[in-house]
Structures are given as structure tokens and as C-alpha cells.
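JOB MANIFEST
job_type = single_chain_structure
chain_count = 1
residues = 368
[input]
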Amino acid sequence: MWHFTRPEPVAVAVAAVDRGRVEATVANTRAGTVHACRRARMAPPVGGQIARLPVREGTRVRAGQVLLELWNDDLSAAVTLAQNQAAAARAREEEACSLAGLADREAARQGRLRAQGVVSEEAADRAAAEAVARRAGCRAAEAQVRVAVAQEAVAEANRERTRLRAPFAGTVAELNGEVGEFVTPSPVGIPTPPTVDLVDASCLYVTAPIDEVDAPAVRPGLPARVSLDAFPGRAVPGRVRRVAPYVLDLEKQARTVEVEVELLEPGKLAGLLPGQSADAEIVLATREDALRVPTEAVLEGNRVLVLTPREGGHVLAERVIARGVASWEFTEVTGGLAEGDRVVVSVDRAGVVPGASVTVEAPPAARP
């Protein structure tokens, strides 16, 4: 009679306690963003009309290459004038210093003749004074050359302000302007679209917000994995390079800390672009060859339900385990279980309680 009145066994899914890698990780709370390590949104420091635009969107440029040049004929004329003035100053210097040399030699000759009594003292003094004056004139001419060279540099610097050069090698991502159009610098406090947006995509990183509770465990240098919506099922290794020293309270009930993760092998994902959304999983600790169970099998209070044999079937027994490193996938077991024990992973099903008779629904799935 008891055989017909006992409750039907509950079907459960189980997993075997095995050994493998266990990682403690934290992940971003909202989608992160891919950034280029070097990106310059530039505009000329002065306003004017675009006269030359040798690049287009997508052009690869080298450091120092001219990206844009404004009309500067007046400034080029000023440079030519300054160059000619410098050349004239050098010629006057050559003349003055040659005459100074001649005066020096003449003063020396007059001095020798005076010692021999051939010329008067007055003539010798006049020659010496002339030499001093000529030498002063030479020094004045040399100073005038330096002034002219400085004026030439000023004129060239004024003309250079009409040229926009690449501060680093990269790719032109955006242009806002065409030849003949006028551009102006951004007024203070009023952001405007950049005339040229230059990106160096050879180095990329991800900014991602993590919960303020997890932030104290994150530090620069920790390894990470970055996944992107644009490349499903693929991940790129990364490394934490910065943890912000402040908390963002954009959402009062979800305060976060911004973390930057540098991508170590961005070339693995051809077509990876700055601005794409990304998720970062930061590895806090790793245990190799650890005794582990699926995290979904662990109940509140570090309890697990273990499958134990009984005549005609199986029954569930409760055990308290000692936990080590844990992630959303696996939990390290440092005590309370042995390799090969089978634990219930379908703990949220009705009737799955200690002492319940159960049947195994399916063999445990293969895990890496």
C-alpha cells in the first residue's frame, strides 16, 4: 500500500563536482564604450577661409602632415618680407664686421708706426678710436641680424597658425569643411563640431562603469576580457589601466566607478572601431585545478543539495560547504564535498528539498 501512496520522485538536473579553473570576476553595470588611446578633435587656432584640404575622411596621415590650410597670402608675403629683411641685415653685418676688421688692422699698424716715431700720437689715437667704433658697429649689426631672424620666426609662426597639422599618425575620421568655406575656432564654453577629427586606432581601450561595491577590489594591471555586441561570441584580452578616483552618481540608486580597460590584441577583431559598445569582465583572482561546483547549485548559507543513492532511486541530502573563489559560473569548494559528488543545479524547482526522492533528469553537461 505504501508503494502506491509515496510521492512521485522529483526530476532534477545535477552536475558532478569536478576540477578546473575558477575565476572571481566583476563586470560593468551598463554598456561600456570603445575609445582610441589618441584622438584629437581639432580646429585651426584662427578663423579664415579654407584654401587647401589635402586629406579626406579615411585618409591615413603621418605625424606633422598638413591636414588643412587657410588662406594666408598676406602672411606669406610677411614671411617673404621678413626673410628679405634678414638677408639685408646679414649683408650689413658682413659689411660692418669687415670694416671693423680693417679698422683693427689699421689701428695696429698706426700703433707700430707711432712706436717708431713715424706718425703722430694723434693719428694713432684716431685709428684706435676708429677701430673701437667699427667693432661696436659690427656688434650692432650682429644684433640687428638676430632681431631680423626673430621677426622672420614671428612671421612664420603667424603663417603656421593657418595650418592644421596632425599631432600624431592616425586616420582622419571626420571632416567638417570644404575648400572655400570659412571656419572659426570654438568660442570658450561653446562646443562646436571639430574641423578635423583624427583617430589613432592602433591603441584602443574601453571605458565601463562598475558598481561602487565592486570598485575597491579592482586595481590597475588586473587582466580582463572584453566582448562586443558587434562581434558576438568573441572576446579580446585586456588589462585594467585606470580606476577613476571618484564615484558617478548619474543614477542615485546605482552609483558606479568608471574603469578603463586597454585592449591587448585589438587586431584580433578586424573592423573594431572607436565608439562601439563593449562589456568588460575583470578577473580579480584565479584558481587553477580547483575543486568546483556550478554557482547555481549553491544556496543561501553556502548549502548544496547532494544526490545520494537509496534503494530504488536517489534522495537529496543537504551539506554546508566551505567556499573559495567564486564567479557567476563556478564556485570553488574548499571543504564539504569530494570530487565526483553530484549536486543539484535545478534548485528552484518545486519539491527540491532535503530528503526528497528524485530522479536524474539528464547527465551533466560537459564543462571546460
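[summary]
The two ends are 47 Å apart (CA to CA).
The chain has three helices and 21 strands.
exit_status = 0
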